[in-house]
Amino acid sequence: MTWSKALKDTVRTGLTVERTKLEPLVAVRGAAGVAIVIGVVLWLATPTLAVSSAFGAFASALVTFQRSWRPRPVLALAVAAGLAISTFLGYMAAADHLAFAVLLAVWTLFAGMAWAVGPVSGMVATQTVAVMLITVTLPTSVAGALLHAGIIVCAGVVQAALIVLFPIRPWGLQRDALADALAAEADYARRLRHDPVARFDAQPLMDARSAAELTPRQARNRPRQLGGPRGVAERLRPVLASLADPVVGAPAEGPERDHVRDLLAAAATVLDAVARSIRWGRPVRLPPEVMAVLEGAESGSMLTGPARRSALRLIALLADAVEATDEPVKEAPPANGDRPPKPAKGSLKGSLKGSLLKGSTNSREKEPYRHLLRPTVPRLVPVGLRALRREARWSSAIGRHAVRVAAVSLAGYALGSALPLGHGYWAPMTSVMVMRPDFGQTYSRGVARFVGTLVGVFVGGLVMALAHPGPWVCAALAVVCIGLMYLLMRTGYSVASACIAAYVVFLLGIAGEGWSQTVEERVILTLLGGLLAMAAYALFPAWETPKLRDRLADWLAANGRYSLAVLDAFARPADRKPRRVREALLDARAARQAWDDAVARAQREPVRHRGISRSAERGAEAALATMGRTAMLMEAHLPDRDASPSKEAEDFAAALRAALPEAVSAVRERRELDWSGPLQAYAAWQARVGDEGVAVRAAELLVDALDELAGVLSRGPGGRNRARRK
């Protein structure tokens, strides 16, 4: 992509306003916290102290809108503590420009490295830099600095108290994450009806897993409804894929395929009903037509072989999903008004319907749900330190971002102080707020920040010029602006920037700043800060495009481990370890997500491909997606522990295990891939047993994927490795 096209794309992205779900009650609660803090401090103390406290209340509420699974009160308190420390240290060094510059550079460097811990940590650290730059311009003494820091902590306490006293949809994020995962499974089932090899985006499942990680305190208070369906959703995906696949499931055409389509539609309806139940805490409502389809699948008159086993497994998992909601289940009225026939007594379908219509069983009531452990805030410190140590290298995008943002903040502070405009902190603050570890976000946020600031300071300055409001009216207008920002922040960064700019104008109006000077300074210095941020990334980039081969190699290695874990279960069923298969699946899923994120960032960079073309990138992605899907199909049909070992599967796994490290290195180093060992092992396997069995048919799909990967990455005119079908 050329620079001109990249800049056009970033401008368009930065100025895009999206339609999204608004949360007015949460926005009102956050704005109320800001209003309480500003009002009380303005009443009891000085306007200057009110301005300082307002930034603490604003940032403490802002973090609660981020996508984090930690309790909101804990986030508000943690942010307030960080803001208080940065403010106090800034006041201590503010008297000496050199000392403050050193403090700013060091603090900003660590704030940039905080992105290694996670996006929420990076955003919070960025806020501490911004508050340090703003509040230290308000004159005070050492005792006053302690008072400012204490007021900021109190602002965080107020926001945390409001969250506790006025909870709005408790566990709402966790409910949404789990419901989204089940809804994604329902959508997948519907797409499989028409496309048996449809792609599944595992991001909802990854989000649900992250949401299921709990601290010990959360585990004691979590609603029981959130404990079981996630595991069911994880097990459903391979079953749905294996049922629809024409190689290991039902034939591509015929009565069995029609019956599978009906069964997939019924499964999608059940999953949607369970998702709605979890999202809103309401009973599960199931139409009788769904029960009729499931009863037909249980009778087995249409399906045979692996397809029948997948159908029975699907029915059992659907019953588990409904049972795990822990909500009463209601039968929706039939579409034609007729009552469906009752299932036969003693059948699997009859027990299924009993589970669907009566709720939980006694065995599940006695069995506590396990939870994934999330470290508490104190125990998160060593985790964060390990993340910082891992990214503290020159080749790391986050490490380069930290160096870049520290240098830009220092340069912005020097230029802002040298210019005869006043409020010079706006230049480095803008740079810090817009800079992110990747090119696309930095440039789009820079454009959005400038345009939003231009609109915000114009509106705020116009109100100040026409109305000449007093301190209390300015405080009320600031609260209105911040309430709008909380409400509209997910619609786009330009909208949020406009609200924040007007908020700052009214806050400075509380302290008696002149509006005309504020508007002029803010626009010029915001433009300067944005240009510094963009120039820094252009001069000292961390492009993702040259790293695509490394990301592809990581994905190949993870898919290989997943395939080997499944093949080992077929080779030695008595020794199979479900935990190993599960961990390999999670690694493969994470590697796939890392690849998708890298490709999305690379597509926005003004860099030509280095080592892999766009066409090869798409072909390799399709091949590795097929490889991962094949391992998932085999996982859906893992043999029982008392099944006979498979010497052929063991030989094939050994050949793949031997070839995999060299293939991963070949992808990184742009060499030809050699899959001759696995291809010969598969040929021997097929010669011994033919095409009978799920494992050998899935192995054919696997070697096809390996052959395709070798072809799209080949530099020679011959393309593919043809050793397999000699």
From TrEMBL:
Keywords: Membrane, Transmembrane, Transmembrane helix
Region listing for Disordered, in residue ranges: 211-230, 326-369
Extent of Low complexity compositional bias: 345-360
TM regions (residue ranges): 31-62, 74-92, 98-117, 149-168, 402-426, 446-465, 472-489, 495-511, 523-543
Membrane topology designation: Multi-pass membrane protein
Subcellular location, principal: membrane
Database matches in Pfam families: FUSC_2
Domain Integral membrane bound transporter residue range list: 413-535
Cellular location(s): Membrane
Coiled-coil residues: none
Protein name per Swiss-Prot or TrEMBL: Membrane protein YccC
Organism from which the protein derives: Streptomyces syringium
Lineage, broadest ranks: Bacteria, Bacillati, Actinomycetota, Actinomycetes, Kitasatosporales
